[in-house]
Design brief:
Shape: globular
Radius of gyration: 26 Å
Largest sheet: 7 strands, mixed
Structural class: alpha/beta
Helix content: 25-40%
Distance between the termini: 39 Å
Strand order of the largest sheet: 6-7-17-15-9-8-12
């Protein structure tokens, strides 16, 4: 059966290509990984999955380990200097090596110097397997991926890193290409023309894909695969969506609550005491899957409804759906603890979100939506936006970052602010220590002081479905997703770099000429709409660390020197529907992630939208990225 969802596809690849390929009956092995490969494995596999494939011990290659010369070792590594040298070191000892034999799998192509270092070492005496499996990305959700490199925001936009872009571009291109290869896609590649880096990244990805295709001719084969596309754009395309207070469950929880490593911590109250509990918000939680994209006003009602249905099916009685009531039920029926814990988690999480909303967030949402849309709830133009933002800026109970969000949205609506007005706004808001966030917009080509160009701005769609008054804004990417699927995307704004243009079901593939180096400004325009329009609105089990992925090789993709490192797969093993793969350079917001699922559902299985970036954004993280923009960051590992 074909795996469904990005996490399932990656899990199956790890199990089949890595673990099962070297598995023998009644023979245990040690699995040794570095940080990047640990992050990938822990995002989609549980410890029980690994043990079932004959793994008796999981080790970190960069930590001190006891030799086990009686067992063979599987190495799943990123091909970087530190990891390869640690691998070589394991087989330098005398009289015995650390392990009986080595099966080595690199998550992306190994640079020639590191390969030569291995070939000159004693590991050649015991190495039984050496493969590159092309899987250098994190499957964050079933339709969301991350390249696990938040530092790339600095490389792309910070003036302090302007001359350091080439290596990150090559690394990023290789990671995106491994995503396409893992999904069995050889897509047409398009890019947003308003930023030159999009063009260069698109060409770099194409070069990597061509190399992969040479070793895997079945890539991209299938009835509807010719329509698949990879879309590359940068964060300046839409600066509004990452700033707004979203009122859908997932985005709201990550914005308003302190959720670290996708974990929600809360207290439950028993008869005589209270205790802290932790819940992982990932796709193993079916209730989370059902609720995460719902509006918060519907979530509590839905949880209550589902809880009553569950209790009735188990012949349990509950007068009211709250955490205290669930505690009483658990005391009587402990066999249902796992199921009831899920309801307890989401009742608490929804109540916590609602409590924050009823404070200052509700009035902030109203102002934000008016500024983002340019109209009020009745569709009337906002003629004097300064009047609606001043009460927020002067309110001492409003947090500094929330005031900055309001000022930025005001600037976008007003096409900049006057040279005298910006210092006044900052002074009224009392955010002088954070003012560099606003100043640093200039590095995305957006001056806070000057009127902005509307060059290369797409027209917005008119969304007619009913909406909540405080959720009228729709991310601009949703328009783009729909236009691609309907084959209406403006070719003047979105260029091709592929050899083949995507086809409709009634067409053959159409050769296209790659676009020349863009002559438009590499600075992006402010994401204003030409006219305001009404609109609508995981970590898995193995608990490893969470540092960013170190820099990988910039070398071209295929390593023929390693031999037949890629197991050939028939095209039938891959999903045959068309895919739209989107990469947002500089972070993707949770509202944009939600849109990928909504558009996929609307196509009724004809398309799957997969979206990702260097990292997942919350509004705080987005502003934090700007806060350090004009500073030298730490060097890559």
């Amino acid at each position: 059966m074909t795996p469904s969802g990005l996490k399932a596809v990656v899990k199956e690849k790890i199990l089949s290509v890595v673990l099962r390929s070297v598995k023998k009956k009644r023979e245990w092995k040690v699995l040794i990984m570095d940080h990047p490969s640990m992050r990938i494995l822990s995002s989609c596999c549980k410890m029980s999955d690994i043990v079932d494939e004959g793994i008796t011990l999981v080790e970190d290659i960069n930590k001190s380990r006891e030799p086990i010369p009686s067992l063979e070792a599987i190495y799943l590594l990123s091909p970087v200097e530190k990891s390869v040298q640690a691998l070589i070191h394991d087989f330098q000892g005398t009289p015995t090596f650390s392990y009986k034999a080595a099966h080595v799998f690199f998550i992306n192509p190994c640079p020639e110097p590191l390969f030569k270092a291995m070939s000159k070492s004693r590991i050649t005496k015991v190495i039984k397997t050496l493969k590159e499996i092309n899987m250098a990305f994190l499957p964050y959700e079933s339709q969301v991926y991350s390249l696990d490199g938040p530092q790339s925001f600095q490389y792309w936009f910070s003036p302090c890193r302007f001359f350091e872009k080439n290596k990150p571009i090559e690394m990023m291109a290789e990671q995106i290409a491994t995503l396409c290869e893992t999904l069995g896609e050889y897509p047409a590649i398009r890019y947003w023309k308003d930023h030159e880096d999009n063009f260069h990244l698109a060409h770099a990805v194409l070069a990597k894909l061509k190399a992969f295709k040479a070793n895997e001719p079945s890539m991209g084969e299938g009835p509807d695969k010719a329509r698949s596309q990879l879309l590359i754009l940068d964060r300046s395309f839409d600066l509004v969506s990452p700033l707004l207070h979203e009122l859908t469950y997932q985005a709201m929880a990550y914005d308003l609550l302190s959720l670290e490593n996708d974990t929600y911590k809360y207290e439950t109250t028993g008869i005589s005491s209270s205790r802290e509990k932790e819940a992982l918000l990932d796709e193993d939680d079916e209730l989370w899957m059902q609720l995460r994209h719902m509006h918060i006003s519907d979530v509590s009602k839905k949880v209550t409804e589902l809880l009553h249905t569950f209790c009735e099916s188990k012949r349990l009685t509950t007068d009211k759906a709250n955490i205290e009531d669930l505690t009483q039920i658990l005391m009587k029926m402990p066999q249902y603890q796992k199921e009831l814990d899920k309801y307890s988690t989401h009742l608490s999480l929804a109540e916590n979100c609602t409590r924050h909303f009823k404070g200052t967030v509700e009035k902030l949402c109203s102002v934000e939506q008016d500024l983002a849309m340019g109209t009020d709830v009745d569709g009337e133009m906002i003629k004097e936006p300064i009047k609606i933002i001043m009460p927020v800026l002067l309110d001492p109970s409003v947090q500094a970052y929330d005031k900055i969000r309001i000022i930025l949205l005001y600037m976008f609506l007003n096409h900049g602010v006057g040279e005298e007005n910006l210092p006044r706004l900052i002074q009224h808001a009392n955010i002088q220590q954070h003012s560099n966030i606003i100043d640093n917009l200039q590095y995305l080509g957006i001056s806070p002081l000057l009127p902005q160009s509307r060059q290369l701005r797409p027209k917005r769609q008119v969304w007619l479905e009913s909406t909540y008054q405080l959720s009228r804004w729709t991310p601009m990417l949703k328009d783009v997703m729909e236009d691609i699927i309907e084959d209406k995307l403006d070719k003047n704004l979105w260029g091709f770099v592929s050899d083949l243009a995507p086809t409709t079901s009634s067409q053959a593939a159409v050769p296209v000429v790659s676009d020349p180096v863009p002559t438009t400004s590499s600075q992006a325009a402010v994401p204003f709409m030409s006219d305001p329009v009404p609109s609508t609105s995981s970590q898995a089990a193995v608990p490893f660390m969470s540092d960013p992925v170190p820099t990988t090789s910039s070398q071209a993709a295929v390593s023929a020197r390693i031999g037949h490192w890629k197991e050939k797969k028939p095209a039938a093993e891959y999903q045959t529907d068309a895919r739209l793969i989107i990469y947002v350079l500089g972070g993707v917001s949770m509202s944009e992630m939600r849109c990928a699922y909504e558009v996929t559902r609307a196509t009724k299985g004809k398309w799957e939208v997969v979206i990702g970036s260097s990292h997942i954004l919350t509004p705080k993280r987005f502003l934090d990225d700007f806060q350090t923009f004009d500073h030298e960051g730490p060097a890559e590992a």
